[in-house]
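Write out the 3D structure for:
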Amino acid sequence: MTQTPAITSTRPYMVRAMYDWCVDNQCTPFIVVAVDASVRVPQEFVQNREIILNLSLGATSGLVLGNDYIEFKARFGGVARDICVPLGRVSAIYARENGQGMTFPVGASDDTASAGAKPATGPKVAPLPLPATPAFEVVSSDDPSPTPDPKPTGARPSLTRVK
């Protein structure tokens, strides 16, 4: 009898793909996390056992989107914190600007490690309703806020040296 090799979960690959899509389209990637004892986040920002986290490059430091965990450092209320979220607790990833993203079942395993097993439901791809503003906005104090692009004047562009 031939044994089928274990199949890994598709969730980490889908989360990374949606993250890359957000970054490529200059959108802000947010994740919704169902908080339990395995999630390491500032508990004072958890509402209804859920937290929304900004994963943008300006809001995180040392972001790792691994196969088992999402890990990074971020400032909450001016205090640097280490964040660790098991991928199985991520219920959605979406672009803040337009709500497009992907949802995932939480609690139900989407791993297909047993031979011949197929997940009952996969991730759903659809525009998500824009959620209420998260309980916090993680903003890096190192980066100045972006300035809008200047309007074209019709003249040739010139280089301005800033020291």
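The chain has one domain: 11-127.
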